[in-house]
Amino acid sequence: MKKFFIILIIIFVIFVITCFTFILNHSSIIPINKKIYYAKDFGIEVIKSNIDFDNDGIDDYTDIMLGARKDAENCPTYKSTYYPGGYPPHNEGVCTDVIWRAFKNAGYNLKDLIDEDIKNNTNQYTRVAGKPDPNIDFRRVPNLITFFSRNADSLTTDIYQIAEWQPGDIVTFEDSHVGVISDKRNKNGIPYLIHNAGQKNREEDILEIYILYYKISGHFRWKN
C-alpha cells in the first residue's frame, strides 16, 4: 500500500510539472482577456532613436521592435541547426534569429556587422575560440552579448526600473537566450518580451517568470 501511494505522488508531481511547463509555453491563453498597458499608463516617456537608418520614417528603436514583432507574428518553427550561408529559411529559426530579423527591418545587416567585428577583434569573442565561422557566429547568444557590449549602450538589468526598459532594447539571459523588448507592458509596468523559445505566443508577459530561472546577462540599446 505504501508503495502504491508513493507511485501516486510521483505521478502527481510529474503531472504538475507537465502542466506548469505547458502554461509557460502557452502563456497567451492565461488569461484570455489580459489587459495590456503602455508606457503612457505609467507616465514613462518612450525613447526614440535620432536615427532612421533605412529612411522609412520610423526611428531605429521602433523599427527594431516592429521587426521583432513581424518575426513573432510569422511564428517560425523553432529549429536549431547549422545553415550553409548562415541564414535559416523564413519559417524556421531560434531566439537569435529574432534579433537579426529585427535589425533587418531597420535596414541593418547584423550578420555583416558581427562578422566584421569578430574579424577585427577575434580575441574578444570567446565563443568563437579563435576560429570565426560566418555561417553561425551571428546566431550564437554569447557572440551577441559581446557584440552589443562593444557596440551598444549597456543598461540596467533590474526589470523593476521600468522606465529604463524601452521598446527595441535587446535583453539576454545568461548565455542561452535573447529577445527584444516590446512596447506592451503588464499592470506593474514590466515590458513584454518578443522572443522565440518555441512557444505559441512569441510576444508575452514573461520577464518576471524568466528571471526566476535565468539571470539577465545584458540589457542593450543600439547606437549607430
What is the chain-wise order of helices and strands?
Answer: HHEEHHHEEEEEHE
Number of strands: 8
Sheet with the most strands, sense and barrel status: 6 strands, antiparallel
From the alpha carbons, calculate the radius of gyration and give it in angstroms. 19 Å
Task: Report how far apart the termini are.
Answer: 69 Å
Number of helices: 6
Q: How much of the polypeptide forms β-strand, as a percent range?
A: 5-15%
Q: Which residues sit in consecutive blocks of at least 5 with pLDDT less than 50?
A: 18-31
Shape: globular
- The averaged pLDDT comes out at 90
Strand order of the largest sheet: 3-8-4-5-6-7
Helix content: 25-40%
Based on helices, strands and strand pairing, what is the structural class?
Answer: alpha+beta
Kindly describe this structure:
The chain is α+β, with helices and mostly antiparallel strands and 224 residues long. It is built from 6 helices and 8 strands. The chain has a 6-stranded antiparallel sheet, with helices on one face. The chain has a two-stranded parallel sheet with strand order 1-2. Strand 4 and strand 5 form a beta hairpin. The longest helix is centred in the first third of the chain and has 24 residues, at 2-25.
